[in-house]
Amino acid sequence: MVTKKQIVELIDSKVKEDGFFIVDVNVKPSNKIEVFIDSDKGVPIEYCAEVSRLIEHSLDRDAEDFELQVSSPGIGQPFKVIEQYHKAVGRPLEVLTKDGSIQKGVLKEVFETGFVIEEEKMVKTDGKKKKELQVFTYEFSFDDVKRVKELLGL
User: Which of 48, 69, 70, 75 could form a disulfide with 35 if both were Cys (CB 3.0 to 4.6 A apart)?
Assistant: First the structure.
């Protein structure tokens, strides 16, 4: 059976050289291979086809048949690698923490062990009749989040 490690070894250097990064590789028991790549500028379909051809020509279908899909991860898919966070700076995210709470905000900063989001909310303050716009900052460690995904709008 084809392994995730084999696929990563086949494409890793080419993808990096071309300014892309591997988000995930899945090899299912039915030999369906799913490869997800991305870059700061998105992924043209032609590049997905190029990576697909590289994999196709490196594996022997006569020895083992497989189904292959190469694409970019869709919007709304959970982040898997830190490069996705860097790409999403300035964009709205939804963060599900390991304790089950959900926080939404705009990604402001990414560092080695986590990230920061900001949320703007209208809040009623003591002694005032009207709500005021306030900015709340939340810092998360990668170890404390269960899932992070980009939102279409916030």
Answer: 70
